[in-house]
Amino acid sequence: MANPFSLEGKVALVTGANTGIGQGIAIALAAAGADIAAAGRSEPTETQAAVEALGRKFLSIKADFGSTEPVQRVVDETVATFGKVDILVNNAGIIRRADSIEFSEADWDAVMDTNLKVVFFLTQAFAKQALKRGGGKVINIASLLSFQGGIRVPSYTAAKSGLAGLTKILANEWATKGINVNAIAPGYFDTNNTEALRADQDRNAAILARIPAGRWGRPEDIGGAAVFLASSASDYVQGITLPVDGGWLAR
Ligand SMILES: NC(=O)c1ccc[n+]([C@@H]2O[C@H](COP(=O)([O-])OP(=O)(O)OC[C@H]3O[C@@H](n4cnc5c(N)ncnc54)[C@H](O)[C@@H]3O)[C@@H](O)[C@H]2O)c1
Ligand SMILES: O=C(O)C(=O)C[C@H](O)[C@H](O)CO
């Protein structure tokens, strides 16, 4: 039996792959055999070196996902270099924290645009080329706040809950057309995104006390779930949001 987790010959487009969770995912996909197109606004970092050390190709695409402007270009540039895109990982995302009573329209729009609207239109651009080629895999990076309310993050919770719903509708639409659409819900991971939470001693302690695994997640904790959802091992898995949370939701 062929290895169902192999990504040999596959091309993955990962947004926000130069840091944190996106970096963990890009390196794991490369270790499973995929070439990587990394689209985002930051410079290539150790992600590029790690992917190339694994013998895979790495393409860096500059893109600001604060609007839908770059979505078609990002898919086109990946296809121009690699001939196709098999796997899309919608990882780039932002968070804004404030009480709902004073939450600004600018912060609402920024989070909803980057974390939800742009994800939809990038996925649409990806699917147009994937459908012509017989299919592909979409992985959306959701959150525990796809399931729970959270604290002082109204637009983030709305966007990540919406992303779990979007994952289901797209899975429904494309399940017979060879595209799998699933999501991963990371728990509390030690990245830029959560720096402010670790800087607050009380909040940090409360978070750690609630995680059965007893520690923050690390970027390398997320790769296995991404390889599963990117590979033929998950061909009959559709529309799920898979927690990778050290047991947070089990508590
Ligand atoms: N850290 C956590 O605990 C946690 C938990 C659940 C979900 N997430 C999600 O994981 C994803 C990655 O976040 P992270 O924790 O690795 O933090 P991070 O800040 O290191 O990563 C976010 C990435 O998205 C990119 N990005 C953000 N806005 C962008 C824009 N307008 N254009 C282009 N790129 C942009 C950043 O450059 C960065 O590379 C996000 O969607 C986040 O919501 C994080
Ligand atoms: O609750 C917060 O303030 C967060 O930062 C949420 C985390 O980033 C994460 O999305 C939880 O899964």
Distance between the termini: 38 Å
Q: Kindly provide the radius of gyration, computed on alpha-carbon positions and rounded to a whole number of angstroms.
A: 17 Å
What is the helix fraction of residues, given as a range? 40-55%
By CATH, the topology is: Rossmann fold
Low-confidence stretches: none
Order of helices and strands: EHEHEHEHEHEHHHE
Summed up, the helix count is: 8
CATH superfamily annotation: NAD(P)-binding Rossmann-like Domain
Number of beta strands: 7
Quick one: CATH class? Alpha Beta
CATH architecture: 3-Layer(aba) Sandwich
Q: Main beta sheet, described?
A: 7 strands, parallel
* Count of the domains: 1
Bound molecules: nicotinamide-adenine-dinucleotide, 2-keto-3-deoxygluconate
Q: Strand content of the residues, in percent?
A: 15-25%
Shape: globular
Structure class: alpha/beta
Organism: Caulobacter segnis (strain ATCC 21756 / DSM 7131 / JCM 7823 / NBRC 15250 / LMG 17158 / TK0059)
Catalytic activity: 2-dehydro-3-deoxy-D-gluconate + NAD(+) = 3-deoxy-D-glycero-2,5-hexodiulosonate + NADH + H(+)
EC number: 1.1.1.127
Keywords: NAD, Oxidoreductase
